[in-house]
Design goal:
This protein is mainly α. It has six helices and no strands. Keywords: Membrane, Transmembrane, Transmembrane helix.
Length: 145
């Protein structure tokens, strides 16, 4: 489920960036800065910091494990909820881009925030892989399958 969430979020982001290049004013350099360059920094930080800071890694690993034990990502309802949240975030990005053409503010922050979210999802996916290598955890995972 974590890998699917990262993939879906990345595809949504790519679509939003392509849309931004078609809609936003300011030229290619400005759009690239606001949709690719600055957001990539937030993505890398939100991916690396939780994996490199032991206390954050422990908290995030605990969250991932508790989510698994609660059944999140294992039932059709929870998968649809996760996809629904990603879709809602995508709609928000598209709305922000659309609003620029109607007097709204330039949507630089929404791209950085979404990229940071992708980074956290990716960190969770990495932690899932690490958890799967723990024999006790692996046994519990296999019992649920």
């Amino acid at each position: 489920m974590q890998d699917v969430a990262v993939g879906a979020a990345s595809l949504i982001y790519a679509g939003a960036v392509l849309n931004a290049f078609q809609v936003l004013p300011g030229g290619t350099t400005l759009i690239a800065q606001r949709t690719l360059i600055w957001p990539s920094l937030f993505l890398v930080l939100s991916l690396c910091v939780p994996l490199l800071v032991p206390a954050l890694k422990k908290i995030l690993a605990r969250y991932v494990w508790m989510s698994f034990q609660a059944g999140f990502g294992q039932t059709p309802i929870s998968v649809l909820t996760g996809v629904g949240l990603l879709a809602a975030a995508a709609l928000f990005i598209y709305w922000q881009v659309w609003a620029v053409g109607h007097g709204g503010r330039y949507p630089a922050g929404v791209f950085s925030g979404y990229a940071a979210g992708i980074g956290i999802l990716a960190a969770q996916a990495v932690l899932v892989r690490a958890l799967e290598t723990v024999p006790e955890v692996r046994q519990q995972i296999e019992e649920r399958e």
